[in-house]
Amino acid sequence: MKAAVYTKYGSPEVIQIVDTEKPSPKPNEVLVKIKVSSATRADTMIRQGTPKFGRLFLGLFKPKNTALGTGFSGVVEAIGSQITKFKVGNEVFGEKLFSNGCNAEYICIAEDMVIENKPTKISHQEAAPICDGFLTSYNFLKDIANIKEGQNILINGASGSLGSAAVQLAKILGAKVTGVCSAKNVSFVESIGADEVVDYKNEDFTNTQNKYDIIYDSVGTLSFKSCKNVLTQKGIFMTPVLSFGILWHSIVNSKKVKFAATGLKKTKDLKRLFLDLVDFFEQGKLYTNIDKSYKLSDIAQAHHYLETGRKVGNIVIINP
Q: Which CATH number fits the domain that encloses residue 155?
């Protein structure tokens, strides 16, 4: 089978499409023929080995895990002897972390991991990125912020994958949502439910009288210091993007500043959140915006586009 790999840190050109052995499922695994996989900003940072201190975990001089991609949607092609939930031919989606990668033609995944039957209302393209944008943002809103009905939340990067997911989820959970994005994306952010939208190039929300219970910096371009004056007394600043500043403040101001790596949560907790998302999609309450799609052979182009910071929603990789 074909798979995307990188054997050294660097630009998108370090990505190679290689032929590798098609995996066989263990007794507790299913073999999924991947139709669509995700490509994210986090993938580009891992490929670059940034921030540099992240290499303590990723590999100091070269990557320990050379595979790319975590989100997938596809069709069950074979099942192990212990499988009871899935059958050959089932359309499924989910994510597999710290693995041989989902930017590939096949993957094996255990039945009790983050995998579920794909809602019939959504396509493989719409399903593949759900565990990247929606699962991460839902973890921050529900488990970290414990967001309540009527609270005011500001979402920075509201037109991106995590941000657009957060806007929709915050509205489902009853919050009043302010989205921050560029002027060209204002109408999109309004269309997915934001009550107010700030064009960051023409308005500085940190210099207003507005106060927020939660600031969710989905893209990592803000600082706690710049935002603390617009937080309520018990307000929190949270982000999935780690930096030295965020690490420091999350230690010395742990009640006000929150960072988390969603993928490091226990599988049972991820599945709890994941199943909520499946219900929301089945009810038609959530929408996945696909900005661009690329063939697996063109994944380097996808990474180049991701690095422009101009994507609206999600980028997906399509297999023939």
A: 3.40.50.720
Write the CATH number for 62: 3.90.180.10
CA pair distance 64, 175, nearest whole angstrom: 41
Q: Which residue in 101, 96, 95, 104 sits closest to 130, CA to CA?
A: 95
pLDDT of residue 51: 84
Cα–Cα distance for residue pair 135/165, rounded to 1 Å: 9
pLDDT band at 56 (very low <50, low <70, confident <90, very high): confident
Task: List the structure tokens of 261.
Answer: 């790596």
Q: What are phi and psi of 90, to 5 degrees?
A: -60, 140
Please check whether residue 269 lies inside any domain of the structure: no
Q: Are 230 and 211 in contact (CB under 8 A)?
A: yes
Is residue 183 within 8 Å of 201, Cβ to Cβ? yes
The fraction of the chain above a pLDDT of 70, given in percent, is 100
103: containing domain: 2-129+288-318
45 and 116 in a single domain? The answer is yes
Residue 182 exposed, middle or buried by CB count within 10 Å (0-12, 13-18, 19+): middle
> What's the pLDDT score for residue 111?
97
Predicted confidence (pLDDT) per residue in 97-128, tens digit: 888 899 999 999 999 999 999 999 999 999 99
